[in-house]
Design a protein that fits this description.
The protein is mainly alpha-helical and 178 residues long. Among the domains are: 35-93, no CATH class; 116-177. It has helices spanning 4-18, 23-28, 36-47, 63-69, 76-92, 106-152, 156-177, and strands at 93-95, 101-103. It has a two-stranded antiparallel ribbon with strand order 1-2. Helix 6 (106-152) packs antiparallel against helix 7 (156-177). The longest helix is centred in the C-terminal third of the chain and has 47 residues, at 106-152.
Amino acid sequence: MMRPLPLILLLSAFGAVLWSPTRDERALGQSGRTDPRKIEAERERLDVPTPRRSRLVLSLMKRDELHACGLTKLSEEELDRLDQWILQLLLTMSAAPSGELRPRSPTEEISQNLQRQQMELELSDLRQRLTEIRQASAQLALDLARARLAAERRDLLSVTSFLFSAEGSAARIQRAAQ
């Protein structure tokens, strides 16, 4: 006589094989009975042409969106041309703050480039001024420290010289700040 444990394991393995979900059921995420309408809808969804990797715009759409727009009726060449046309349209249009699209003109691009170049020149000028201010402030601090040490030694000629140098550094800072 067989022991009960191996018999139970054998029966449960056999039952699992019999009642395991089919491939269609697994595709629908179901177990047990399936609705034939759902299986048919899943098959129709799989029949929709998948967007190619080369389609930059249409590949962003979901299959139900493609179907809702009627794009599933187009041929592969027509889908490729439509994708290229939409991409070209996106590249040649500019969006207003309100969200509306308007054509991007060459003069608009030129003016944007000129504005960018002008801002880059201003940035370069401000960086140069900041560098000059830093150098002059370091020189000013050094001159004031030397003037203080000369005053402690009671060397009036050196104090006067360092104070004149400090005035020059302060003038450089003032010019760079304007």
